[in-house]
From TrEMBL:
Residues 653-663, 679-691 have a biased composition (Low complexity). Regulates COPI-mediated retrograde protein traffic at the interface between the Golgi apparatus and the endoplasmic reticulum. Involved in the maintenance of the Golgi apparatus morphology. One of its GO terms (molecular function) is ATP binding. This is N-terminal kinase-like protein.
Amino acid sequence: MWSFFARDPVKDFAYELLPDSQEKSGIWTLHRGKRKTNGEPVSVFVYEVTQGTEQQTQLAKAAFKRMKTLRHPNILAYVDGLETEKSLYLVTEQVTPLAVHLKAQAEKGGSGELEVSWGLHQIVKALSFLVNDCHLLHNNLGVWSVFVDRAGEWKLGGLDHVVPEQGDPTGVSLPAPKAVYPEMEKYDPPEMPNSSGEKWAGEVWRLGCLIWEVFNGPLPRTSSLRSLGKIPKALVPHYCELVGANPRARPNPARFLQNSRAPGGFLSNSFVESNLFLEEIQIKEPAEKQQFFQDLSDNLDSFPEDFCKHKVLPQLLTAFEFGNAGAVVLTPLFKVGKFLSAEEYQQKIIPVIVKMFSSTDRAMRIRLLQQMEQFIQYLNEAAVNSQIFPHVVHGFTDTNPAIREQTVKSMLLLAPKLNETNLNQELMRHFARLQARDEQGPIRCNTTVCLGKIASYLNAGTRQRVLISAFSRATKDPFPASRSAGVLGFAATHNYYSVTEIAARILPTLCAITIDPDKSVRDQAFKAIKSFLTKLETVSEDPTKLADIEKDVASCAQAAGASSSWAGWAVTGMSSLTSKLIRNAPGTEGGAAAEGSGANTAPLISLPLLLSNNDKRVQELCSVCSLYIWRTFLLFLLFHLVGRSSSSTAVKKQSSDWSSSGWDADDSWSNEKEGQGQSSAGEEASTAATTVRTEGGLSKAELSKKKREERRKELEAKRAERKAAKGPLKLGARKLD
């Protein structure tokens, strides 16, 4: 039981000191520490009562008390404390002594004037708070009493010697710094302590000593203050006022701050102004916030890295979450993100980005798409497929062309992270619609270019179904850049085509482009043709190289063979159909001997000769025959096109999502199935004959209809004549039959 009351309170302390992290800070020893519950980093000032003198213990207890009661943004923040008989523990926010910070910055190239200007601004503001608002004197201002937090902001500490300006009413007096540390005498002002100067005269004198040491290093002696050294010219006039021999002429800290912030002053710059705005951002108007974030993006490049990470970033995130700042925060947010590690980026920025993609604000969406390159590497595949891609695809159907274009371009970055369904089905469906129906030529062109660049991420089946059809359609686009993109797409994806596809589908398409009105398109077509012909010649010379050339082509030989077989039928089938049409043309039906002799084109050759005959009956017969032949030929072409359209519709209904989306609507290489249209000669002849009979039947029907119409008109005319002859009926008269 007694052991319970004898427990060491240090063991129950909520904070843990990290080993090998101590630094001397006046009478205190500064340790790095962390909270035991969540690992939050802190700084712990420790004073050992057994190792200090009575005066030092008095100062430590006074500082412990002051830290609890003084609260100001520019004064070191008190977090927790522990007082025992053996030691004092003072827990504050995580900080580093200014001397250590300046030394580390010197190794990196020195602290910039912007950082120092804001640091001095904060210390002077804290000093003004003590002197003017609290009526306290610090009495210990110097490099040793200033600390720097993670954001690079300077905090005033060292409150060991703080006393009321009129003296302690309890009658307890603290020893002067030089009484504890004799070497501190060089920082005392030259006048007597009880001189008739202003109450702040000694405080601003020590402020001048601090400024000198920040720019020139440790102060060797009081007389060195006369040498300006590296003090900036803009600060020299105000520095001289601080260390003037006349204590009455030394300015109040508030006036020094005001003078230094005047135009051209050392504290008048974009960094100080940005910090002051951030401190008051909660009470600023929305228009002011918008303008500030727009200007902030240009200034961030010159701001210190730590300041951007630990002060600007939290304000940007808060402005987006609660301030409705909108798209204007994106540019500075991504600039600050460059300073973060991968883990920090995942924790702080990625959740915000995912939330931004669900926004309906068009300005927000287009900014995200434009700057996706800056954060895509931090996005994992699960977040892309489930939380980002479903929102991004809405951009494909947006009425704003700029959003559609940026959405297409963003697929270059998103494609490697998309899953099978989103990439090979959903994305291809949107690409097909854009290439076929979008009214903007540049968007159609970019769709083709993007497809060629992401081809390596598509699975083999999608490549076989999509690439040739898509690039072939692009070569028929009215926009020259789209036609060029189609040709370049073929060349860029050459390793995904079999030699059969090259010979039967790609080269015929490219050959048609060699007569393109645009010379740049023609030049690209010739280059691509030469490249593909070289592959074919290589295989022709050495068939054993076929496997090496087709190593990137998936096992889709059957589909490729079907396409090439159909292409061969398409070339020869038209000539055979034309010949059948000629052989079955009217005018030759009565001439069985001529047809049997095999003179298929005889009627076409002999018609001009017959037309020159003087026999009127012969000429009339030839005219009728000629008209009949041409009408039959045109009807056959119409019948053939209708048949192709209906067969294409049937194929489309059974095709994949890609084909149904419209990629192959105008592509004759992929609309038909192998063997479609390969009917026998008898079937083609019967089709042609049916065409002729149908033509004759339609002519008779039209003639009969015309005769009936004429007969009806005649009867109506006769009835009108009879009514006119009888005259008008009288009112009340009864018509007799």
